[in-house]
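User: Okay, second chain of the day. Same drill as before: sequence in, structure tokens out.
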Amino acid sequence: MENILSYRARGLLCRQQAVLRPEASWKWLSEAERWEHLAHVEIASHFRERNSTSLSDLAKSGAPSDSSDTRWETDAAA
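Assistant: Same drill. Structure tokens below.
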């Protein structure tokens, strides 16, 4: 998570530079876009890792993974 915060902070600094230096704003906005892209990649990687871990845990437990699982009953059905 620290990487994501760092990437977003760097993107913000680049956007501020774009405002302060309009003659080179294209460069700074491009840099900001790059940092935002890295943040999105990091987030996607985090969720892929998390989902693959939880799926493997589910497979190890032998629990059913379909939507007809009856463990999640509503109050009305209980």
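Residues 9 and 35 are 9 Å apart (CA to CA).

User: Thanks, on to the next one.
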